[in-house]
Design goal:
Mean pLDDT: 91
Helix content: 25-40%
CATH class: Alpha Beta
CATH topology: Rossmann fold
Number of strands: 6
Radius of gyration: 15 Å
Order of helices and strands: EHEHEHEHHEHE
Amino acid sequence: MEMGKVLVYYGEGRGKTTAAYGSALRLANQGKTVYIIQFLKDRDLVENPLFKRLEPEIKFFRFEKNEKNYDSLSEDEKKEERINMKNGIGYARKVLQTGECSVLVLDEVLGLLDNGVIGYDELKAVIDVCGPDEILVLTGRVLKDEVRKLATEVYNIKSE
């Protein structure tokens, strides 16, 4: 099966999410159905009224239940949220398999690898079901070499 396009926005600088969401807006304007699944961040962004007005062309999801950023949680809270984020990865795989969306943004998914929430094989399983007409966008701070090899386009976002 031919794989779809995989875009990666990574780096220590600010703007990875902004670049990914900009791509999502551009593609939605071209008639694509866009899903965005956000990981490791506060709930504020997903519940932003501006983003809610973009539905149904762009749909936002967050599987974590806690209001706070993942880094500020206790170990017990992190354990619970890891289960929720794994459910988000399962959902990502499902929507690509079923063709429910043509563009899927996994915001901060590379951070799930860094935090040990998912392994490379779990991320690769999502990438592998990305069909030839689908676009998968990944963001995060660190891009591991094995993930880089799966990407179609890579953008390193840096601050100066």
